[in-house]
Amino acid sequence: MMLFGLEWDFPFVLLLLPLALLPWFNNNLDKTVAWTALVPHDPLSRTISMTLKVLASVVIASLLFSVASPAIPERTVERLGEGAEIVLLLDRSRSMDDAFAVTTQAANYSVAGDNSKRRVARTYLTEFVKKRPDDRFGFVFFSTNSINLLPLTYSKEAILATIEANSLGKGLSDTNLADALMNSALMFENQPYRGSRIVLLVSDGGQLMTDEAMELITQRYKEMNLSIYWIYLKARQGMTLEPSENDNILYTDLPERKVHEFFKSIGIPYRAFEAGSLEEFDAAMDEIDQQQYQTLIVEELVPHEPKADWFLWLALLAMLPLASSHLYSYWGVRKAHE
Amino acid sequence: MSLSYPKRIFLTALVMLISLILIIAALWFPPVDREIEVMDSLFVIDITDSMNVEDARFGSETISRLNWAKEYTRQSILSMPCGSHAGLAIFSEARSLILMTPVEVCANYHDLMQMLSQFHPTMAWARSSEMSKALYTAIRQAKEITPPPTVVFLTDGHEAPPVHETLFPKFTDTPGEVPGVIVGIGGSDLVPIPKTNEFGEIEGYWEINEVMHKDVYASSRGDAAELNENQPRTEHLSSQKKSHMETVAKRVGFDFISSPGSPQNLIKAMREISEMRQQPVKYDLFVWLASIALILMILVFLPYNLFVKRHE
Questions:
Q1: Which of B20, B103, B122 lies closest to A145 in CB terms?
Q2: CA A22 distance to own-chain centroid
Q3: Which domains does chain A carry?
Q4: For chain A, which end, N or C, has fewer CB atoms within 10 Å of the first or last residue's CB respectively?
């Protein structure tokens, strides 16, 4: 419960606050005096007795406040960091279950285990996420219909668990790249511009998109200031995204090349990394890591901070003179009775 | 008051001294370790079309089975002590798809809820609903996670296409190796199943001639006579298939609970079957120490003269 800008674990304890007035309503320590007129008028001891009562009230009140366990509630603070906001777009199609970077024809068709493209991507992405403390990550579920599964979050645990889950089980039969690209842009909709915005696509193929979809994507990506990084996991060693002179005629019309052409034509920062081996994949991740350290506004969640100590200190400060004075009077009374 | 004046002075001084020591202790006594029991869980939610049926009772409201499943998952996660882990998965067609492996529930509550809210029938990658096979894949994938979580499978138990009892998919793992609970959702009356289009909007209902009413594989078996018997064709309708889920649960060594009223039913069932982990938490004793000091102080200042008659 919130009270006075603080969060209280046991707010009902505060209902006992009137108990702090007890020192003013009792005369436990009064001495029976035969005739009060005999007691000399002494302003000093009156002041002392008042002070002791105030101190006792302070002790009781601050103990009550501390037992009610106040805390500063969890809050977010903004600070400047270095990094980027990155939406991960991981291809989950069946072909991603194939082995990555194999040279023999036979291995290409065998069912891959730990070296499947999806698992290799998991390994490198996990490493990448761990290296970047300030980044905010989002994750797009890439299937027939894509879904913004994990909106941008600072929680490393959540994004790592999502990347991990993506490596489990088998691939999906159908994926829709255009839809996934559109949804990635939606992640930044209605968000203040905090810093570099990246869509990181990891896939082993491309898909033809309709002109309508391409137009929409172009418009959205420009409007929202996005950059695209594409880590292309090569299936054929000889194939390159850029056409070359001694090109195999089969490569010219591949969807990968079309997608590459399209990304280049959008007019936004775009880099493609063609990874044919683990080393190349690693190098691509390192390069993205190095490039993306621009100023970024980071929202940090400050956890709830218990503040009962404030009141305990107050109780202690009041208790010290109070207890000493009572010990002193005990000593005095004992001496008088000896 | 029967205590003599010197005695009262002595007691007061003594109590004040003890209170002082208690306050000092409350400030500086180090937190003690306390163990709490936590568990790892994986919530698998059925997102097939039959989950759009609005016949799940939540308090006094009737909501769709899917919304019930999501709300029940939320409340269950909320009922777990901090330090517990929860993961999320969906099931459609004949397989479960894990979307987030178990994460700590308190620190990641917001992200878990964000993901949970995204679960819609549009995520389905195919139109069929083979619940028992999906359950098997969930179990197999749960084993790949360390530590293996307790599987919570939320479904109405509808199998589409239907499975003939003699052709039941085989469960090849050890029953009970992965602990789990099947949570049955939905009412007991047969109701039409809304049909969703590719945008997830509900467009009419599944018609009697649009679904299979018999296990196609059973027709190639010898007992065709039995299969061809005139039976009511009701596979386009759906209700909570309790006895089917009970059978499946038994096969894989899971518990089955039907339409639980509170998340505590699930948590209790999970506690009984899960391997609980001991999680040490730091526990500050200051509340207890300060409370004792407080009670002592109040005792000193209680106006006893109001309760006890003086002998004068």
A1: B122
A2: 48
A3: 2-74+304-337 (no CATH), 77-300 (3.40.50.410)
A4: C
